[in-house]
Amino acid sequence: MDGATIGILVGGVGAGIVLLLFAMSRRPVKCPGCGREQPLRRAPASMEQAMWGGSTCEGCGANLDARGRIKKKK
To answer: Is the model's pTM score more than 0.90?
Structure first.
């Protein structure tokens, strides 16, 4: 293997480790409407939730953003 290939492999493994640590250190989000803790694994209900994060509260049905705030209707 040449130096460029080794560099790509080391960079890819390093980025994967950082992303894994970031995903494991997330705290659960609580819904401000009903106070229910949301699961860490989310099931996006719309394309917007899939792209930008967020979920629908299992308790009250509120549309939450990635930080757990209730999204305003446009």
So the answer is: no
Q: What are phi and psi of 58, to 5 degrees?
A: -75, -20
Residue 35 to residue 18: CA distance in whole angstroms:
31
Is residue 57 helix, strand or coil? Answer: coil
By CB neighbour count within 10 A (0-12 exposed, 13-18 middle, 19+ buried), where does 65 fall? middle
pLDDT for the residue 73: 63
Answer for the pair 68, 32: CB distance below 8 angstroms, yes or no: yes
Mean pLDDT within 29-52: 86
Rounded Cα distance between 74 and 69, Å, is 15
Element (H, E) at 66: none
Residue 11, token pair as written in the block: 């960079």
